[in-house]
Amino acid sequence: MVAYFCPNCWHEMKPGAGKCVSCGYDTAEYSRLPDEQKLLVALNHPIRDHRLLAVQLLGELKSSAALPYFMAMLNVEEDFYTQREVLTSLVKVRSSESQALLREATRHESRIVRDFARRLLDGSTR
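The chain above was modelled as a monomer; its predicted structure follows.
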């Protein structure tokens, strides 16, 4: 069975439910959002794989709107795979802001995150 979640409070919902029973969010409102905004919302999805896919797609879209979310994820996420995907997407955005965030990640508390950010800045992901 597939799980559906409210995009506002992430409470599990029945498929096709018009409103969330937990917070009252109208799911029709979500369906009217632009795709980029839906991906930004998905960065808080309770299932890690959904968050990872949203990060990847926002990177492919070169979404500058995702940059504040990416920085917050680097500071809050404890999962290296998510952090790695955020760093990789920062490279894809290719802006001075994303480069600044990558440089900031070289001072991250996690050594593995710092090292990966340095390799990305140097142009090497090995």
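The chain has one domain: 33-122.
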